[in-house]
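[step 3/7] inverse_fold.run input=structure_tokens len=209
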């Protein structure tokens, strides 16, 4: 589960503004993934940059095989040579879709999605910082700085919603770090994992293989 979360975050890191750091522009120094995972917004809206800076971004990105398009609606699209596409919306949130069709969203304003997996669990009352869907089989969500009480309460709601098989839970504090995890499956074989460790909190849902 934690490995999947790490892969998910790496995918976003790789998708974020191709060519921006290579352009060595001042705004590139302000990209703060951590802040976005805490429910914040990306401080740079690329479509609002000066035209000269936009052209520099496009030129540097092209060297890496990436096409940057500044759209009329205020969004910015980054299309990589491998077929993956990242889009910064005018509100600063980022969406991502790779060549295999896996999709994600990152930043404040990310909403709880309605899909074949999320329909099995209650809608959380925590701020959604990021979501990722791997095909139709695995859904991952990261929460923005939830309390342990919120995670414990949500785990109980999920359990009451039918995830009461093969329950494994951990709730402890070690070396000053709070660790929480809850995993279970329901009657249809869908597995849920709710976790919080090392400053990262979230949940994954996976269909039975």
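[step 3/7] decode complete -> sequence:
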């Amino acid at each position: 589960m934690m490995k999947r979360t790490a892969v998910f975050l790496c995918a976003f890191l790789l998708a974020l503004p191709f060519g921006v750091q290579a352009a060595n522009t001042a705004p590139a120094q302000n990209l703060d993934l951590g802040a976005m995972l805490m429910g914040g917004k990306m401080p740079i809206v690329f479509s609002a940059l000066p035209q000269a800076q936009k052209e520099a971004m496009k030129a540097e990105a092209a060297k890496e095989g990436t096409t940057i398009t500044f759209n009329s609606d205020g969004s910015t699209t980054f299309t990589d040579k491998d077929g993956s596409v990242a889009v910064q919306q005018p509100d600063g949130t980022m969406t991502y879709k790779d060549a295999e069709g896996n999709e994600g969203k990152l930043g404040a304003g990310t909403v709880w999605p309605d899909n074949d997996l999320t329909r099995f669990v209650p809608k959380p009352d925590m701020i959604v910082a990021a979501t990722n869907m791997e095909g139709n089989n695995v859904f991952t969500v990261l929460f923005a700085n939830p309390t342990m009480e919120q995670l414990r309460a949500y785990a109980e709601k999920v359990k009451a919603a039918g995830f009461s098989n093969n329950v494994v839970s951990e709730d402890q504090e070690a070396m000053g770090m709070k660790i929480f995890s809850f995993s279970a499956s329901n009657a249809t074989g869908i597995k849920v994992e709710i976790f919080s460790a090392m400053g990262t909190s979230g949940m994954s849902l996976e269909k039975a293989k």
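[step 4/7] annotate
The first helix runs from residue 2 to 15.
The chain has five helices and eleven strands.
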